[in-house]
Amino acid sequence: MSLSLSRPDLMRRQNLINGEWADARDACRYSVHNPASDALLAEVPDSTAIDARAATDAAYRALPGWRHKLPRERAEVLRRWHALILANGDDLATLISLEQGKPLSEARGEVAYGASYVDWFAGEATRVYGDIIPQQQPGKRMTVEKEPVGVVAAITPWNFPLAMIARKIAPALAVGCTVVAKPAEDTPLTALALAALAVEAGVTPGVLNVITASRTRGIDAVADWLADDRVRKMTFTGSTAVGIHLARESAGTLKKLSLELGGNAPFIVFDDADLESAVVGLMASKFRNGGQTCVCPNRVYVQAGIYERFASTLARRVEALHVAPASDAHAQIGPMINPRAVEKIGRHVEDALSHGARALTGGATLPLLGPNYFSPTVLVDVNDSMLVSQEETFGPVVPLFRFETEDEAIHRANDTPFGLAAYFYTQDMRRAQRVARRLEAGVIGMNEGAVSSEAAPFGGVKASGYGREGSKYGLDDYVSIKYVCQGGLD
């Protein structure tokens, strides 16, 4: 199966600033490669602070006109954008697979998932309600209004190059903000194609601006947004270390921040669980995008009474997974994003094996397939001192930890700085309520491995960040609350 675009014009190779496609001001470019083969896909602008400032200038100029459009007018633009995303879904999925590596079936799923946020926030655009405070004093009327916060800077990761940027841009545009965005270095092409469709949908010049940059020069570009007090909000999905840096460096301009950061998700299987359902749920949540998701289970705790049976059942399922490039129609696991990712996965597995763990299946790279493949792996006899427990692996590795009691499982699950997602399986409904209350995470999967939805709030606690994306709560970080007190009414 060949991967090609029916609309080659969606393969954009320039920045979008003020409605115009342009190279970086100094004409520097960097290369984007296919992780499955390391083949060159395209060269895109290697932008700097100068380009970031030009994007901010455009967004700031466009802000008054966009914020004063009627909510239904903004909603209509978003609905046209949503329709164009779906109409060009095959091409967008192809771009995702080419630059990110996930199987084409998963890429198609990401297109639909990302589009759902655009559709959701098109509806929410007309439901940004204020409030009337019951009268407190004679002759006074007190009201509350919600206004767009202003220019929003969005910085997105490589693992979901369409969904992550869509769920940041859509709420911003819905409430009347304008946007400057920088997609991940490894996956800029999907974001540029998405921006091209937004232009087709009628997004006003300057309302949405997208620049691309390599890792080093991208830091300079983002630093300009951090220092510019015209940028009133920054939304970021990525590592906790970078999130802390953004929070620290943005303090000088007191920006609003939404930070969706790292995770170390536990997955608890109690001995009264439906074992088959638990295995299916774990497979769905762990191996989505080859384990390269922030909410995929990183630590799987299985109660002692079913540990061996669960491990053998899981190993058979994992061993049967088909690892291949996206061009293989039967692919279930694609390549990892780059050699750094493969190195980290290998280091975690080697550390576990050297300290007493055993691999029931997998545990090695697959060089015959290409440069960035790692075999789906199940590790048993894992303990809490190993790297797979302490760090997020971000790959197709399932470490199985044995536990005895409910209290022990919850203590070990919460014994991490992170708190993005957590999962558990039990058929005891009293236990279900206890465990859901006690787990320290922003997203809980109770007898369910697939938890993401545009209608649900997504975000974490502790070192996994703050703010929420999606749902009716996803608008809160894009608005400011204004209180108006009108006197002299008696």
TrEMBL record:
Its EC number is 1.2.1.16. The lineage of its organism: Bacteria, Pseudomonadati, Pseudomonadota, Betaproteobacteria, Burkholderiales. InterPro entries: Ald_DH/histidinol_DH, Ald_DH_C, Ald_DH_CS_CYS, Ald_DH_CS_GLU, Ald_DH_N, Aldehyde_DH_dom, Aldehyde_DH_Superfamily. The keyword Oxidoreductase applies. This is Succinate-semialdehyde dehydrogenase. GO terms for molecular function: succinate-semialdehyde dehydrogenase (NAD+) activity. The active site is at 260. Residues 21-484 form the Aldehyde dehydrogenase domain. It is an enzyme of class 1 (oxidoreductase). Keywords: Oxidoreductase. It holds the Pfam family Aldedh. It comes from Pandoraea morbifera. GO terms for biological process: gamma-aminobutyric acid catabolic process. Belongs to the aldehyde dehydrogenase family.
